[in-house]
Give the backbone structure.
Amino acid sequence: MHILQKRSQHDEDETPKPGDAIFRNVQNHVIATAHQSLAAAAQFFCTQNVTPLILGDTVTGEAREVAKVFAALAREIRRYEHPFKPPVALISGGETTVTVKGQGRGDAIPNFYCRSPLHLMV
């Protein structure tokens, strides 16, 4: 907590960089790749009688644009049962972005999930 207070009181960069003392005792262990996680999610949905559709583990782009594509696919499935008959789980990974203009703040996850339902209502 001391480091956070120190950094907030002095206009220092809030993100520690490689080599920063804060990482001295950090150990990282990769327990699954992104695609392994998607495959595990797909297996779970199969046990629930839901067709999984893995859209990839490298989905990128503006969150609002990616949300439009996912919503369009969901509408196609719901309206025309194409390419699969519902229920279907759209599963993906990657890293979407949000372009911040002015003094605004951006967070890709809320942007994606808040925009998707808006496009589904069309």
Q: What stands out?
A: The beta strands are 51-54, 59-62, 88-91, 94-97. The two ends are 46 Å apart (CA to CA). The helical segments are 2-9, 34-47, 63-80, 108-120. The chain has a mean pLDDT of 83.
